[in-house]
Amino acid sequence: MTSESGTTLFLSLLAIWVSLQVWLARRQIDHVVANRNVVPLAFRNAISAEAHAKAADYTCAKQRFGLWQFGFGVLMLLAWTLGGGLAALNTTLLGFFGGDVATSGDLAYQVTLLLAFGLIGGLLDLPFDWYYNFRIEERFGFNRMTQRIWFVDLLKNLLVSLLIGAPLIAVVLWLMGTAGPAWWLWAWGFWMAFNLLLMVVYPLFIAPLFNEFKPLADEALAARVKALMDRCGFSAKGLFVMDGSKRSAQSNAYFTGIGHSKRVVFYDTLLARLSPGEVEAVLAHELGHFHHKHIIKMIVQIFLMSLLGLAALGFLAQQPEFYLGLGVTPNADAANDGLALALFTLVPPCVSFVLAPLSSRASRRHEFQADAYAKANANGDELASALVKLTEDNASTLTPDPLYVAFNYSHPPMVERIAAIKAG
Ligand SMILES: [Zn+2]
Q1: What is the structure's pLDDT at 99?
Q2: Is the pLDDT of residue 3 over 90?
Q3: Is the per-residue pLDDT at 125 higher than 90?
Q4: What is the pLDDT at residue 306?
Q5: pTM here?
Q6: Residue 369 alpha carbon to ligand 1 centre in Å
Q7: 30 is an active site residue
Q8: Judging by beta carbons within 10 Å of its beta carbon (0-12, 13-18, 19+), is residue 350 exposed, middle or buried?
Q9: Given Cys at both, which of 85, 218, 354, 384 links 80, Cβ 3.0 to 4.6 Å?
Q10: What distance in angstroms lies between residue 226's CA and the mean position of ligand 1's atoms?
Q11: Which one of the listed residues 286, 337, 382, 401 is annotated catalytic?
Q12: Ligand 1 centre from 340 Cα, in Å?
C-alpha cells in the first residue's frame, strides 16, 4: 500500500464514520421531537406530560451539543494527522531534545511527545466539558457543581493522569524499543496486569480523591441488603454511600473493585429517592450481572480487543505508509514508537464503530438478564417503580429512535425493560 492509498483509506473510513454518526444523531433528535407531546401508554400514570417533555428537550440538547463536540473532535483528528499537527509537535520536541535523542535511548523525548499530545487534546476539550456542566446540565437543573469543584477536579485529574500515565507510557515505550518484534505481546501482558491492578486500586485510593465514601448508616436498609446478598450467595467487603449530590442531581448505584476492594456504592441521591424495597431491587439487578458473569465476559472481551489492537499496532508501526498516510514523516534518526502510539489513539474510532451494534446488543441482552434475576430474587414491581423514578429523575427519553438504540444504547429503552419485567 502506498501512502496515498493509505490516506484515501483513512479519509474514506472517516467519511463513513462521520456520516453515520450525524445521520443517527439526526434520527434520534427527530424521533424524540416527534414524540415529545405524547407519553407512551404504559407510562401515562407514572410520568407526567411535563416530565416527558423535559426528557425530550434534555435528550435533544445533549444530542445537539454532542454533535458539535463530535464535529470538533473530527476537525482535531484531521488537524493532528493530515493537517500536520503531530508532525509539527514532533519536530518541535526533536529540536528541543536536540542531539541527545539518538544517544539517550529516546525515552524522555517519546514520553514527552505523548504527554504533550495528551495534554493539548485535553486542554482543547475543556471548554466543551465546562459548557456541558454549566450550561446544559445547569439549564435542566442537574448541575450541582460549583466552578471551584470543577476546577479542583481538573487539577486532581491532571495530577492522577500524570502520576499513573507517565510511568505507564514509559514502560510501554521501553517494551516497544527492547522486546523485539513480539513487543506487542509483552505490552499486552503488561497492560492487562495494569488494568487488573487498577481495579483494586481505583475504589480504594483514586475514587476517594474525588468523592466521600461513608459506610451505609441506615441499619435497616443495610440488613435488608445483606440478606439479599446472602440469599444470592454474594460477598462484598462493604456497603458505601457516595456524595454524588456534590456534582449532579442524577442518581445511580454500582459495584466496583475486585477481591478485597469489592464494594457496593450507592449515590446519596439514589437513597434519598428510592424506598428500601426499590433499593433492594436495584441492587438485585446489579447482582444479576455478577450471577450471569457479565463483568468477567466484558473484561475478557476488552482483553481480546486490546490484543487485536496491539497486534495491529505491532504490524502498522513497522510500515512507513502508516505514518505517511496519516500525515507524519517517520523520524530518520530517532525511534518512531511514540508517534505510532499517538496515531494509534486517534484512528481506532473510525474503524471500531462497525462493532458498535454488536457490543450494544450484547450489553442490552445482559440488562434484560439482570432484570429477570432481580425479579426472581427481589421484587419485579419494586424494580419497575425504581426504574420509572430513575427515568424521570435523570430525564431519560422514553421514545428513542430504534436505529439509534441499535447502535448506541447499552441499556434497552425503558418501555421494553418495563414490559419485560411486567410480562410473565
Ligand atoms: Zn445493568
Answers
A1: 63
A2: no
A3: yes
A4: 93
A5: 0.91
A6: 9
A7: no
A8: buried
A9: 85
A10: 19
A11: 286
A12: 36
